Amino acid sequence: MPRSAPSITVAAGTPAVGAAALSLLLALTGCASVPQPPPSVVSPATTLAETGMVDLRAVVPDISQAIAYAGNDNFVGAPVDGYAAPRCWLKREAAQALARVEAGLRERNLRLRVFDCYRPARAVAHFMRWVDDADDVRTKPDYYPDLDKPRLIADGYIAPVSGHSRGTTVDLTVLQCDAAGVDCQPLDMGTGFDFFGTASHTDSPQVDAARLANRHLLRRAMQAEGFRNYDKEWWHYTFQDEPTPGLRYDVPVDLSGVDARDAEIDRLMQAYDGEVPGASLLVLRDGQPVVRRGYGRSDLQRSIDASPATHYRLASVTKPFTAAAVLLLAQDGTLAIDDPLKRWLPSLPAYADGITLRHVLMHTSGLPDYEPLVPEDRPDQIMDAGVLALLEREDHKLYFAPGSMYRYSNSGYALLSLVVERASGLAFPDFLRQRIFTPLGMQGSVARVDGGPAVPHRAWGYSAAGEGWERTDQSRWSAVLGDGGIYASIDDLARWDAAWYDDRLFSDATRALAFGKHAHVPGEPEPSWYGLGWRISADGTRQWHNGESIGFRNVMVRWPQERLTVILLSNRNAPTPYRTALRIGALFREGGGGQEAVRGD
What are phi and psi of 37, to 5 degrees? Predict the structure, then answer.
């Protein structure tokens, strides 16, 4: 069964031919039972604006899409002519009707996922050339295992003219969501989208009652708003009250009709869109979301959309939280950031005698990295206490004298979580929950431990493998909490961002400590400093932290003087999203922001 990604459908329109030829064509393509519009001609329109179509996301901003004709994951096995962006354009009347279908389904914790919408005439011509290429059968096992290519036309699955080109036909399915209306995954329809064969017929006897019921659910919802199903494809619907039934279009699917800033954001995020590991993006201006959306999938196995509610492993975006926990205890008077590390972890050997908590917070401790010390054949994951056990060996040496230079240290932040536990008397996850997450309303955020609270709406990590993806969610080090173990959503991180502007958690003195330029970060293209848990730009106007662990790449960037924040979380091993976040931030910055992003390349 093919993956539910791209789509082809039978034509619902025909070229301007005589009545006899029209009847013959309908008979050959199996479409004679479907009411046909008048013969159509190609419109002279040269832009999407001239076609009278709208971007579906302008009507339903968070509509789930899986439009694969802009990529390789489709029955042609290659990008299709005319698809410059994975976007759904429809005549306004059809888009508004589809929005009503979506609204009705959401009342039952259901949603739509769109596979294809307007299709340029040149894309249909591409399909016909593919049919004529008898040697290209790469996708046959997935999409048409029981048919030869000529039968795809004769049996009514592909035709030389498509109703999609009129901008009123859409291919789609239904998603079942959880009680919160998220974690939506496709209902089982018995075949994948674009599967060519009788099993895809809407009322196919080859499909059991449960799957037929799912197809009929979709059909009832669509018919209620004026869409008619093509009975050979359970996913194919045409809006019956077509405004221009005699016109087809050949304008490419692109972002030309989208707001320029939104178009640039979608261009920057396009690699995350579709049936691939995805991302969640949030842009905050003055504490309010101006961009809040998901791209791609949080779980490829279940085809669940990434969304604003998706919780990602933050990796090192955890470090600002760990530092904040220490700073809160200092603010309470429970400890001092200039305390010797061995005051709280006395089992460390003599080599740690000169290290203070401040050194550890600002990565100037010289502590050995723990990752290469973990045996490759270790059967279980190491945790924070295990990092301490590794560093308790007397034969270790510091990389340099404490305070003499900067070297990023995961070891140090693992030890800081233990310091928090010993100073507070609480387990590190409990301290975070009681002192940070709950006061800020970060209800879904957790420092994940086996047997502890489950991660809600969890994203699973992936890495590229050949032409696909494999799940790589955990490594030997992924259970260490202090350096990277928090899971959170962009919505929760918006609350975290807000806490740095007021006095709910931190005093003015604490904020000044966190964002002070304490340690120069050498050897990187961009001059920067490290504060206490945050990186600081050379001019002091930008604060950020990256996070990288197997299967996840994340960043949070703040321009506090402009009250602007960009948060980008992704569940894949590459790319690192920092430069993308800077480019997105530049679109919203006040004067000169774009130059910063260019210089950062």
Answer: -75, 170
